[in-house]
Every structure is written in C-alpha cells, then in structure tokens.
Give the backbone structure.
Amino acid sequence: MKTLHPPFFREVQDSRRVLIAGMGGGFDVFCGLPLYFALRAEGKQVFLANYSFTSLAFHLPKALAPAVVEVTPDSSVSPGDYFPEYWLSRWLATQGEPSTVYAFRKVGVQPLKTAYEALVRHLDIDTIILVDGGTDSLMRGDEVDLGTPHEDATSLVAVNELRGPKTLLACLGFGIDRFHGICHANYLEATADLARSGAYLGAFSLTPDMPPVQKYRDACEAVFQMMPRYTSIVNSSIVGAIDGHYGDHHATSRTHGSELWLNPLMALYWTYRLPAVAARLQYYRPMLDTVTLSDVGLVIERHREEVTIRPRVAIPV
C-alpha cells in the first residue's frame, strides 16, 4: 500500500532535522502539530516556529537574530496574554516534549529571511515545512480576494530565498478562508496548476483515531483554556471537522453571528513543493525589498491596482 502514499511522504522520508513553521501568524503553528508528532514518531528531530502576532519586545525572550526569539515556559508572560507560542511551549513541557517554540517578529522579507537563516544554522535544519491554517497562501495576486496575504506572502518569499534546506508547504483547513472572502475555486485551480508542474504532493486526511491528531486536539484544547478570550477560529473549526461536525457548527463564541461551513475537506492536508508555489506569486520580486509589514501592504496594494482582478467563480458541484 506504500505505493499509494502521497508523494509528500517520500519528500520527507530522508529528512533528519525538520522545521515546521506557521506562515500566517496567530495559531498557524498549531496546524503543523499533527505533522510534528507524526515525524517525531518516525525518529526525526523536529522543531516548531511561528510568524508571531505577539509584541515580542515586551517579553524580552532570548533572540537568535533581530527578528527571531526563543520562547520557552520560562518566558515572562501574564496569565491569559495573547501569546500562542508561549502557551504551546507550556503545554509541550507538560507532555515531556521539547518545549522551545521559535517566534518570528512581524517584519518584511529581508529581516525574516535573515531570521530564518539564523535559525537554520542554529538547528542544522535540512527541511522546512511552512504550514498555512487555511488556503489563502496559494493566491497568486489577481483573485477576487486574497484573504489575509501579508504574513503568508512574507513567509513564502523569505523561505523560498533560503539556500540549502528542502522547502515544502502544507495547507490545512479547506473552506475556512470563506470567512475572509476567498474563492475556493481559485484554490483548486492553483492546485491543478501545481499538479501539472509536478509540484502538488497530494492530500491526506486527519482522522480522530490517529495518535498525532489526538495530541493536536489535546494541545488545542489546553491552550484554548489558557487563552480563553482568544480561541482559534481556524483550529477549533478544523478539530470540529475532524470530529465529524458539518455546516454551521460553532465551537467558539468568537464566530457567533457569522455563518460557518465545517466540512470533511477541512481535515485534509494539501501539500506542495514550496518553490513552485512561490513562483506563482505575481508580486514576488517587489516583496524582496520589504523590511516592514507596512512595506508588504504597499506592495500588495500597488499590485492590486495594476492587475485585472478576476471575477468570483462558483464551484460547479
């Protein structure tokens, strides 16, 4: 049956030291936890990082480079603070897991690339898997809506500019970005485009009986209790979909008043070779000169003014 395994598993078969990094900020790193536990069970050294939404300067953790810091259970944090990386670190320690989570500051491509280079050297990384909670990381720039592209595009370009590690992308949570206006026909079109070029590495489901999925759920539930005002909409929806909930199911009060569409496709990892995804990004070159997230916003805004925006397309099923 190994001949039916998605190509993604062959891509990581020989990897020894893997960095799983949330690319879009917030709780994206949690979307990499099933992969984290699965790869560790295979005997690989695996590390966690995240593009952080937290004001890291206030917590003064140890810095490896100006835009990346080590977050540990000993970091200075007040109870209930919005700091997913810290609370994940606390939970990992209770499980006997390595408890350091690396957090990237909210910066543009140039400092983020430098930060990744420092982390790759520090950890001797041979493979980087960027993880997107949702699917907007595949938007190329002329779609009717890009979702929340700033952090995704910054991470995508910065990691693609690295030399040395193998780079992959995994998306988890098909349908979640409906909340942000994404046209999922565009996502399926992008996946088909990447399949034609040999860069689509397949999709596979997370099911409740899988031990890595059970640990992922435990981590989410524990951290949601530690940060009760900031329950992750993305991850609570994914966990709900894994458990078989469908349609307008609300696991957190944060989504009340909106209409959700939980569905089995939310529990799929969709995987890709990262360089081919980066090559589709229409505003890739001007992203290279960005230093701040404001610079990134200007690049995206100018690009949107210059291109013809494609109309929304319904999925004909």
The CA atoms of residues 133 and 234 lie 6 Å apart. Residues 211-226 form the longest helix (16 residues).
